[in-house]
Structure prediction request, 485 residues.
Amino acid sequence: MQNTPVVSALLNYKTLNRRRFHVPAHAGLPLGNHFQALSQQLGFSSALLDVDLTELDGLDVLSIPEGCIAESQALTAERYGVAHTFYSINGTSGGLHACLLASFQPDDAVLTPRNAHRSIIAGLVLAGLNPVWCEPIWYADWGLWGDVSPATVEQAFKQNPNIKGVIITHPTYEGLATDLETIAKLCKTHNKRLIVDEAHGALFAWHKAFPQSACELPEAISADAIVQSPHKTGGSLTQSAWVHLPKGSAISPQRLQQALNHLQTTSPSYLLLASLDLASAWLASVDFQQALQRQLLRVQRLERQLQAVPSVRLLRKTHLPVLACGRPALDETRFYLRHATLSGETVAEILETERGLSYESCNPYGALYLTSFQHGEADFQAFADGFTWVDEQSVIEEIQHEKAFEPVKQASFMMPEVALSPRNAFFHEDVETVTLAEAQGRISAETIVRCPPGIPVLLPGERIQPSHLSLLGQTGTQAIQVIVG
Prediction:
């Protein structure tokens, strides 16, 4: 198994049959008595615990990889066509934090979309960066924030020549892609670094049916760092991710390794590392291509079935412009749907409780479902049957009403009134907790977010507006930490 070096090292370690006078304390065995039964019900078998190891002789060291981890990372880099790949066992969030620390200096200005994931906000605080907020495109027909246009980026460069870099979310949680190629050219022209949060795009480089991956950009206009969550779409274990430095990146691999070492545990889970090793080999295999082809065919059939349901409107690539590179602007393995008369939360709850269809996320306007290469014919058919069943419960007169699927008014809080940088607000010593009724006009000292999708409703340093308060009420927030004064 030379194409899975970490797995091979783990299996080899098992053959040594050593008495384990080292961490972890479970020593490869389930906990005793009643807890043993609970452990086994959860799947914490002796076979699993036997390979729950950390940095031991023969298993390499994640912070200074020279053995099986280094070999596995190099294989993943080769498969993605990049110069270097680093494994993150703190998810894409940890990888993004490391990229920001490795790319910029404290107080640098960084162009950031207001629909960035909360992990970006944490990275701004950790690195002491000043965000220059930019407004993404609002898709009123779907009630969604989408990509950032190249025109918005170019205008920001003109208005803020001190910007040192750009953070792009590609794709958004719902699968909306960005015109990366045009933005990458702008960044190279203006000498700005480009960090791509491609958490949900780990499969993009493996098939032309997907939007373009940042890993596929030509070296002359390459991104500087790309972070992906293969656990979201590629089959690795939750909390595992990889960070790519493309050929042409301006970031030193030694600098990135140092940043990762500051953020990651010194006792990394080899279950997570082995899952990254396996997922990397799986994505490069013929078996995966066959599984993906089956998935794409089932996706197409499901699309046709849902488009025949009168009460449902499905977001597809035909609703979006084609990217400059000629690839689609939507990951169509994701199904974001609006119902004519029911809110997204209501549809999601009904289908989960009545039809057993769990959803990824929902909002007042639509619900999001993610399909996988692991879903079989029965899964796809159950999905189609579920929405047909919901349609049968609907009132046709309401569906045909002129207000069905009406466009959604843009949220007014998206471009914030910034009073302090996220870092200064986070570290402000004089903070108090107030009720929502008392919060209007005050400066937030915390990040409030609904996850998924992880886009903050309120950020540290923002002045709290009336539009914030209505959304905060929907998240169940009753009190907010604000800066005194």
